[in-house]
Amino acid sequence: MAFQIHDFEQVVISAQALDSEGNPADVAIAFTSSDETVIAVTDNGDGSALLVASPGEGGLGTSLITATVTNDDGTTLEGSLEVEVVAGDAIIVNIVPGEVTPKA
Description:
single chain; four-stranded mixed β-sheet; three-stranded antiparallel β-sheet; 0% helix
């Protein structure tokens, strides 16, 4: 199940790379979004990132956020989080008239 946020929200996420003993590894973590129209990612450069939902108009749906680390030997590891952007509560009601036709 995806982590959910509303289209008017943002959240900070963090990732931590660990070595085989469970200690923090001294590596940089880079964050990406599979769909920047759903989730815009700002990598903070400290193992965290700001996720902003629906940065433009629309933007509902799901995006896969990936954290990538590169070890000194060039090998890379990835972790991912699926984030779903859902609509907020209704704040306005629009009534749209149909086509005007003669009475039958």
